[in-house]
Amino acid sequence: MTLKMKTKNGTLSIDDDVIAIVVGSAASESFGVVGMASKTISDAANQVLNRPNFAKGITLKEDGDLLIVDVHIIVSYGTKLTEVSKSVKKQVIYALEKQLGIVIKKVNVIIEGVLA
């Protein structure tokens, strides 16, 4: 899937992998986040994903001209989960708006696990 945005100069197409890298980088830089989790593995066998695999931990949905982002993360033990999820949301929205000019409708943070 490719996100298409209309600009005054024409149509801009942004590939999902580009969006996933921006989202994954922003989420991984948030305090308390150990890494991205695969959205297909929801049991105890969660794996922490490296940079090339950010797309596996992110789901993108279009709602008209707006984007809905699901971010699957693994957090560090002892961190306050609500604060980590708020931080991830802020970082992701800021990164997408600043770097790609994408308007976000909603960011859902799914905590798949906690690592010590």
Describe the structure.
The chain has 116 residues and is of the alpha+beta class. The protein has a single domain, classed as Cation efflux protein, cytoplasmic domain (Alpha-Beta Plaits, 2-Layer Sandwich), CATH 3.30.70.1350. The protein has helices spanning 16-28, 81-100, and strands at 2-7, 10-15, 33-37, 48-49, 58-63, 66-76, 104-115. Strands 3, 4, 5, 6 and 7 form a five-stranded mixed β-sheet that branches. A two-stranded antiparallel ribbon has the order 1-2. Helix 1 packs across helix 2 (81-100).
Helix/strand layout:
Blueprint (H helix, E strand, L loop, with lengths): L1 E6 L2 E6 H13 L4 E5 L10 E2 L8 E6 L2 E11 L4 H20 L3 E12 L1
Parallel strand pairs: 6-7
Antiparallel strand pairs: 1-2, 3-4, 3-6, 5-6
Helix pairs in contact: 1-2
Question: Key features?
Answer:
116 residues; Alpha-Beta Plaits; two-stranded antiparallel sheet; 7 strands; elongated
CATH superfamily label? Cation efflux protein, cytoplasmic domain
Structural class: alpha+beta
Which series of helices and strands comes N to C? Answer: EEHEEEEHE
Oligomer: single chain
Concise synopsis of the structure shown:
By secondary structure, the protein is an alpha+beta fold.
